[in-house]
Amino acid sequence: MREVAVIGVGLTKFGELWDKSFRNLISEAGAKAIIDSGISGREIDALYVGSMSAGRFVGQEHVGALVADSSGFAHMHIPSIRVESADASGGLAFRQGYFSVASGMNDIVVIGGVEKMTDVVGSEATDTLATGLDQEWEAFFGSTLAGTYAMIATRHMYDYGTTREQLAKVAVKNHANGALNPYAQFKKAIPIESILNAPMTAYPLGMLDCAPVSDGATALILCAMEKAKKYTDNPVKIIGTSQASDIFAVHGRNNICTFQSSVYAAKKAYTQAGISAEDIDVAEVHDCYTIAEILAIEDLGFVKKGEGGMAIDNKITTLDGKTPVNPSGGLKAKGHPVGATGVAQIAEIVFQLRGDAEKRQVKNAKIGLAHNVGGAGASCVVTLLEAI
Amino acid sequence: MREVAVIGVGLTKFGELWDKSFRNLISEAGAKAIIDSGISGREIDALYVGSMSAGRFVGQEHVGALVADSSGFAHMHIPSIRVESADASGGLAFRQGYFSVASGMNDIVVIGGVEKMTDVVGSEATDTLATGLDQEWEAFFGSTLAGTYAMIATRHMYDYGTTREQLAKVAVKNHANGALNPYAQFKKAIPIESILNAPMTAYPLGMLDCAPVSDGATALILCAMEKAKKYTDNPVKIIGTSQASDIFAVHGRNNICTFQSSVYAAKKAYTQAGISAEDIDVAEVHDCYTIAEILAIEDLGFVKKGEGGMAIDNKITTLDGKTPVNPSGGLKAKGHPVGATGVAQIAEIVFQLRGDAEKRQVKNAKIGLAHNVGGAGASCVVTLLEAI
Predict the structure, then answer these.
(1) Residue B163 phi/psi, 5° resolution?
(2) Which fold has domain A4-122+214-228?
(3) Quick one: CATH architecture of B4-121+214-228?
(4) Nearest chain B Cα to A92, which residue?
(5) Portion 216-245 of A in contact with B at CB < 8 A
(6) How many CB pairs under 8 A join A and B?
(7) I need a labelling partner for B175 at 20 to 30 A (CA). Which of A97, A195, B62, B265 fits?
(8) Given CB atoms, is A77 within the 8 Å cutoff of chain B?
(9) What is the pLDDT of residues B164-215, one digit of tens each?
(10) For B250-277, what is the HEC assignment?
(11) Any idea which fold B124-210+238-387 has?
């Protein structure tokens, strides 16, 4: 298979965007990515789009067809493929589009991720997020995503001595980073007291330990490396991509404090790229809840299992730490429009590797990792990128 | 890219299957396909599954993770990818899985298609099928899929003189075929009088012009051709695959009596395979409504535009006609569990090309076509297969 590069990035702001519809969001992100890349729309061979639940959030399935039409590509009759894996939908769409270029089938594809989550009432957003859990064995009995991660957090505290304060410090760090990101939903640093004193969602997770409900979209242009130099001086090379599954319902797993999907996906991606966790200069990880970032840095091998909380205390993951994590602000502060998240994580890594991340730039970032989890870890996609 | 073969087929019966859940259906189809192929579960590299709207029909997104788990593959951590394109989801999942093998990334993959549509109340099934239309410009204002196809039918009658009786004869033919198919939802021939006198759904389409609401699943095993002979003496080769888009809302199209997505997809697939419509020995086409089969045989080039109705009168598409269409009974009689349909169409073509179609066997079938449409034609997938 041939080498593939990211040559363009486009993002909408993330937030409660009452004046923008699902189709407005993805069209805006796509147009920005095309402009950023310098390609012409006529050169695009296919669209790949990740969306978790447009069917429930905005009453729209046939998402690929909608995106092709609203982006102005329907009259060209090009293929448009919607991929879903709960909140790992974006990462998975990227991976499918990557293969289509790596295999030689396509030369240039657009990867989109989009969700419009705020057009709902009552508990609909929570209910729809719970469709990322096992409906018959978890959601049906009242499990929510927050409740599930809360169970994982209490077990992590019991097994490894992780503290409430360490969880809160994940949010402090990510809000501090988000304050530097013009695309973030919450551009605001928050002191630890606010996080500790926020209304409880599910013990030990308070409201400010949880990623928000968000609207937003992101798009990327992928191009065969052999043609990328025609468009840009700084293509970012994809050096690893992997996906792994795990037992769906959390109660079926041997150890709820490890996502085996993350462990396997990371191992496969590192092997493909010929690197190890030590080589990662910057990472965007799936911090849908603060505990999730602690699991992630352990499962990805940045620190040993059980030492994630301590790593936060020791500032290993801050912008100037050994392995900066979530410079964008993460899902926590940047926002979490679920289908867009995986694409937005890769977009941030591309900014970092191109040196375009402005005030949140990680110094000398050459290799970056994006880690996108579905639901409570039943699927995971890991992507590795390198500046060339 | 290398050659790819279908080496295994598994189907559930289609119908109102009150005693089987979404996960039961896909697991049953998958297990049957694995047994049919003679592979071991440990040889599977990835799962691809098509489902239109599990999120709305059964409250389950994260469909890939569910399928990996319920089929017993989660502990192997293999990737599982859910693909959606309304009722073309199955055909599109097949196409993505095909590329993963053709590119050399995978050697053996399982393609699944599944929908559980009968666990709903009131107008939910109709509403969810309408999410395959443009929600903001069609469904929101009350358009349904049946209403949209009814408009297309009246225009086809006006432009080309197509008659109510010709529409009904499509259903007569497909029910006659379905009566010979052990997997069909309706194993019953129906006289034309019953179809003409059925309650009206949307003029000119009566209840028996419409595919039913169905539960069901189908699975296929794809294998690199170079390894296929290890498992089977009669691999069926994939010689063409294509996908095309069209303007989403029907009112935006120049001519509503042609699905440009079908025309383009067919053209591309024929070119890839180096054949023409003349070479097709048997076809499964997307007859969600009787008018849809008439459009299909025109758009695929079996007959000229406008002559589809006459072709039905002249029995060109019966089991012993020049180009037999929908020997399985089609969506009309076999049933239409929307996410499963595209995979089930290919399964029928595989049966036909292997000579396994029993009483509905088309004589000397060497090349077959499957034609899977999303919604009212905004997406289409065409697959060409050949007996070797």
Answers:
(1) -110, 160
(2) Peroxisomal Thiolase; Chain A, domain 1 (3.40.47)
(3) 3-Layer(aba) Sandwich (3.40)
(4) B81
(5) 242-245
(6) 215
(7) B265
(8) yes
(9) 999 999 999 999 999 999 999 999 999 999 999 999 999 999 999 999 999 9
(10) HHHCCCCCCCHHHHHHHHHHHHHHCCCH
(11) Peroxisomal Thiolase; Chain A, domain 1 (3.40.47)
